Amino acid sequence: MCTGKCSKAIAIPLYVLAGVSIICNIIAFFPGWSTEYAQEDRDGKGDRITDEVKYMGGFIGGGLMCLIPAIHIHLTSSNGCCANRCGMFLSIGFAAAGVVGALYSLATAALVLANGPVCLFKVIGDKDASWGRPFMNNSGSYLGDSELWKTCLKPDDVVEFNIGLFATLLVAASVELVLCAIQMVNGLFGCICGTCGGKEEA
């Protein structure tokens, strides 16, 4: 496959994955599909939103830091001056930025899944329920035990909500990481050989 075609094949899925990452991160600010908790968190009534959500790993890392490289990588798929060697060379740097963004998103998502969400829960022996992270110290073992998910009283179904969103982010970031790494290699070959668009037209 020509390096130009390969760039196009990489860029298109990156658009989709970046969009998915941004959407997941935005939705994560509304646990239980409610704006109530985001409002309370903003008003200083205590932590209602999981800390890692505020790190914006999906929005910045898997989103913008992969979307911008995707645009450039897509543009390098066309044949230009000097078989677009300059564009392919620059795509290596953009793809490297995408790798960093994907790693950031991946790390953030993994951290959320390991530590669990912020929720209202009641510890045995305590009189009142309190907000916190009941799964913070169990190394993600709660993921396989749906009975433990009932520990969280509010927001509704917050554990399933978090797992669904951040598992999606984890997968998206992993694929973005692979695609950007491939583009770094593809960009190197494109820099040396060009996009071979001229050969296709001959």
Automatic annotation (TrEMBL):
Primary subcellular site in the record, as a coarse category: membrane
Membrane topology: Multi-pass membrane protein
Stretches that traverse the bilayer: 12-33, 53-75, 87-113, 163-182
Keyword annotations from UniProtKB, A to Z: Membrane, Transmembrane, Transmembrane helix
Subcellular location: Membrane
Listed InterPro entries: L6_membrane (IPR008661)
Keyword Membrane listed: yes
GO cellular component entries: membrane
Name of the featured protein: Transmembrane 4 L6 family member 5-like isoform X1
Organism ancestry: Eukaryota, Metazoa, Chordata, Craniata, Vertebrata
Gene: LOC120030660
